[in-house]
Amino acid sequence: MVKGPGLYTEIGKKARDLLYRDHNSDQKFSITTYSPAGVAITSSGTKKGDLLLGDVAFQSRQKNVTTDFKVCTDSTVLITATVDEAAPGLKSIFSFKAPDQNSGKIELQYLHDYAGISTSMGLTQNPTVNFSGVIGTNVLAVGTDVSFDTKSGNFTKINAGLSFTKDDLIASLTVNEKGDLLNASYYHIVNPLFNTAVGAEVSHKFSSKDNTITVGTQHSLDPLTSVKARVNSAGIASALIQHEWRPKSFFTISGEVDTKAIDKNARVGLALALKP
After folding, report:
1. What are phi and psi of 10, to 5 degrees?
2. For each of the chain's 276 residues, which pLDDT tens digit applies?
3. E strands, 73-224, in order
4. Which residues pair with 196 in a beta bridge?
5. Rounded Cα gap, residues 269 and 48, in angstroms
6. pTM beyond cutoff 0.85
7. Which end of the chain is least crowded, N or C, by CB within 10 Å?
């Protein structure tokens, strides 16, 4: 198993997951079943206010090839084919969204003990080329993430990041939006026995001089039940409780309130995911 720095998307991921993952104010439902041939079929629906969205996804695995086929309520079909270990450490991904003829994209990911590289390109006449690369170890890593529009000849995205991991602590620093947005994040495991952790994220936007601070924590009440909470400098507080009532099946209740406007109704979200 590769124990290197990973891909660029993993910089700051632990803190982001603690602060934002599973927090929602919608009603979500998904159920997964398996056909006799081993095809995973997942039906899901999301209610956003008066809008109801849904999709049906099919996933088939044959040796090192995974094929995903998703049909959405907006009459689009997303097809993704992933080949793992096409060569040692190499993964290739092809995706296409019908009926959009310009949505085809191919991506290559390569993981090494001291590097992680991902590059993708749209399958069009004038594609946008994305490249991200990380060098270092599983302790200290530095990387960049850029996108280049071959039609205009301009860079549409220029990001850079730094990550430091030591025992139960992960700290990261990223510069996004072509140097206009600075993010610093922190993740610390306080008690591994109860999966207790704290995290924080500080953002500064140079153009508007806006600062945002978000802090959060998580804790397991028992092996099947966990709670999370967060609050930011704008006074928005969120909390959730998640219970695994059977293996791989989760029920989540989350809520959000504006502490600076208590008279407003709190937003409540429900999520139910069922897997056999």
Report:
1. -85, -10
2. 457 899 999 999 999 999 999 999 899 999 999 998 889 999 999 998 888 899 999 999 999 999 999 999 888 999 999 999 888 999 999 999 998 888 899 999 999 999 999 999 999 989 999 999 999 999 999 999 999 999 999 999 999 999 999 989 999 999 999 999 999 999 999 999 999 999 999 999 999 999 999 999 999 999 999 999 999 999 999 999 999 998 999 999 999 999 988 888 889 999 999 998
3. 77-87, 90-98, 105-112, 115-122, 128-136, 140-149, 154-166, 169-176, 181-191, 196-205, 210-222
4. 191
5. 10
6. yes
7. N
